[in-house]
Amino acid sequence: MRTRRIAVLIDGGYFIKRLPKVVEDRFRTTPETVADTARILCKKHVQRLIGEALGARQSRWLDHVYRLFYYDALPYDGVSHHPIANRRVQFATSDQAAFRKALFQELRKKRKFALRLGQVTKESDWRIRERLTKRLLKTRDWLPLLEAPLRDDSGTPWTDALLAEDQRRALQTLIEDWRSLDEGDVILGLRQKGVDMRIGVDITSMTLKGQVDTIVLVTGDADFVPAAKLARREGVEFILDPMWQSISDELHEHIDGLVSVLRTDPTTTLRETED
């Protein structure tokens, strides 16, 4: 059997976000289990490509691996004042930052894994999460009524005088949305930089140097398309794993296969020996 040259590239931010959708809690609760799950994902892809049975006792899957790449960004290390909690937030010492740093250390211990780390920068101040923004912006619809007390001196409760029952309920809902706003509903405007660029550079470099014949990319981002087109023109097989997330018809045009492999059940064994 010929030896394949396979590279698996994992978009770490996307991978972490999709894990709750495809695996049980026990496969993602600690940095160790997340690192093991990333390795299992890679192994399943390689075994599928080389025609080896999943769970084979004498697996030689790593012999067919050029490199396993994990892309993410170093945790933001700035300090900011939370507008609702009224306290300083030191992002460098947060639970999320500690988790990511520990995860990176675990991945460094895995055979043939390489880390590619970008940066996180602050682009804007605190903002309300998207799921609440549209609802709270409806405040604008009620500005004329909110101004009514300034114009009405009759002594009649303005809500009774001006609002129908359905309007009163809608306004009450909006008021409750504002009252229930808590510190978890606002986030600092942070953005990853350098991650997509590193993915594109590695795909291009491996392709032009002839280091691989197959690339598996774990992401749902369309930014990879130019690099994928280059790889395919040079004869590299390009597989996309969106972790069961649907993709647009346009993206299908620029890949050679759509394969999601990471889905667990109660009988799955997480920790495997390093073959």
TrEMBL record:
It comes from the Bacteria. Pfam families: NYN. Residues 191-254 form the NYN domain. InterPro entries: NYN. One of its GO terms (molecular function) is RNA nuclease activity. This is NYN domain-containing protein. The lineage of its organism: Bacteria, Pseudomonadati, Pseudomonadota, Alphaproteobacteria, Rhodospirillales.
